[in-house]
Amino acid sequence: MYNKELRYSDTVNKSGIGRFGAVFALLSLFLILSAGSVQGQKSSLAKPLTQADSMMVKQLFFSAIREKTIENSKRAGEMFERILQADPGNDASMFELANLKRQQNDYAGARPLLEKAVAISPDNEWYWVALADDYEKTNAIDKLENVFNQLIRINPDKSDYYFDKANAYLILKRYDDALKVYDQLEKLDGPSDDILASRQKIYLKQGKIDQAAAELERAIADNPGQMRYYLLLAEIYNSNGLNDKALKVLLQAEKQDNNNGMVHLALADVYRDKKNNDACFNELKLAFANPDVSIDQKVNIISGYFPKFPDPNAKASALELSRLITVAHPADAKAYAIYGDMLLQNTKLKEAKAAYKKSIQLNEQVYVVHEQLVRVELSENDIDATIKDGENALSLFPNQGWMNYMVGVAWAQKKEYKKALSYATNATSLEIQDKDLLSLSFSLLGDCYHSLKDNKSSDEAYDKALSYNPDNAYTLNNYAYYLSLRSEQLDKAAQMSARSNELQPNTASFEDTYAWVLFKKKKYADAKIWILKALAHDKTNSAAQYEHYGDILFYLGNTDEAIENWKKAKSNGGQSPVLDRKINEKRYSE
């Protein structure tokens, strides 16, 4: 369908020499070399050149063209200017110099040269084409009418010039003049979809809905099997609030071709505007099951549901439509990727993983699908799958920070801390903008260094993590706990632990950490308050928390209750020799 931009721009690119560039150069050479060209194209007022001057001009022109060919534009421009000093009426040099200026976006400088060139050589089509481009680039739209009149005079059978002239009128809002040009063009080439669409544009700008519709109705009567006319007519009606008329047209089209996916999409639009959601969704399903409707269009429609999430109806509808995409496009990786995303939105993690794996099988070159798969596996604590699929992704995309981080987390879960360090270090070196990733990666480094008993490196990594995100609750908790275990920087540990509980209240492990930091600071009464909170919120019967409670009670003088809680820790899986010693000796031990 014809587009609003002036079509002569198809023949002249931004450098000023489009697909006719070679023709322009040959034309210029021809003008110089042809007998009488130097004088034959001149104004009658131009002074005739001597034979010596004529030879000099020819040689200069050859040299200038050569310099232009090797992209020495400055030197070429100087030579064309010398030619014009010797031969002010040399239109070929004017044209070439103007093109050099247009290459540098100096359209204002090119304009007088082109205007003089067409005055000297009014039958040269390429001069007029270049001038039209210049006027368009400088927004001198009012000057285009004469240019296209001249181009039509020179080449009356070229339909592009009629379209260009009509578009100039359209920009100037001379709608009736534009319509007259389309009438001329129709007499020249006969009816066409381009002319029909262009007229439609004008009628709609003029608010002549009935006239626009009437032309399309005639087109439908002449070509009842052409669905595009029904679709255009329905769009006009629907966009102007005439939903019932649009529906009538589309139902007529559906009778002609029940398997046309675009008709079903158009019907879905009409039903949606009429608030008939069931009918709308049924039409969408018919369109989505049709492989002739592009997958990209379907994905765009599904994305329209995203703002409605987490509404369960919206998620269910998007899921069903995405499933239909896999039916209609079973060999397209994109189909399974979007299906996986919608399964994930509906918390169908097992099915989502299968969809992502199918997408990767069809096309392994889309990184985001790999990342989605590994994120799901890690969220399910499927550590072996995380490592396998994550390392496979990194073999294809080694420079992805998040993937390095997730694989590092998985290795840390397997207590392979040196391997985890390698991936976490990669993540910190690959990403310098994503502060969340940097904070998480340095925090992972802190965890690994602690497990490897490299306390100095661990503390440095935690400090670095907090510099990127001072409110990372997990980093604050872990850092505080490890400092408390070493009885180092307890004031700092207390501040960090208190902050983690502010950020994520009612978290048993965080409350336990704060209780233990307070215990190490010998604030036993406060420690008891926080360990009781931890036990109240704990869902796992943590052996560590019972042991900590026993330690706190011992220092509060409640030895019997302390022993009772140490025994609870033992019965809930506590196995350390220190715990056994506490129970056997009935006293606190480190």
Give me the secondary-structure topology:
Elements: H1 21-33, H2 37-40, H3 51-69, H4 73-86, H5 91-103, H6 107-120, H7 125-137, H8 144-154, H9 159-171, H10 175-189, H11 193-205, H12 209-222, H13 227-239, H14 243-256, H15 261-273, H16 277-288, H17 295-303, H18 312-328, H19 333-345, H20 349-362, H21 367-379, H22 383-396, H23 401-413, H24 417-430, H25 435-451, H26 455-468, H27 473-486, H28 490-503, H29 508-520, H30 524-537, H31 543-555, H32 559-571, H33 577-585
Structure description:
α14 runs antiparallel to α15 (261-273). The chain starts with 20 loop residues before the first helix and ends in a 5-residue tail after the last helix. It is mainly α and 590 residues long. It has helices at 21-33, 37-40, 51-69, 73-86, 91-103, 107-120, 125-137, 144-154, 159-171, 175-189, 193-205, 209-222, 227-239, 243-256, 261-273, 277-288, 295-303, 312-328, 333-345, 349-362, 367-379, 383-396, 401-413, 417-430, 435-451, 455-468, 473-486, 490-503, 508-520, 524-537, 543-555, 559-571, 577-585.
**What general form does the structure show?**
elongated
What proportion of the residues is helical, as a percent range? Answer: over 70%
Largest sheet: none
Distance, first to last CA? 82 Å
Mean pLDDT, as a whole number? 89
Task: Name the poorly predicted regions.
Answer: 1-45
Residues in β-strands, percent: under 5%
- Structural class by sheet pairing and helices: mainly alpha
Number of helices, where a helix is a run of at least 4 consecutive DSSP H or I residues: 33
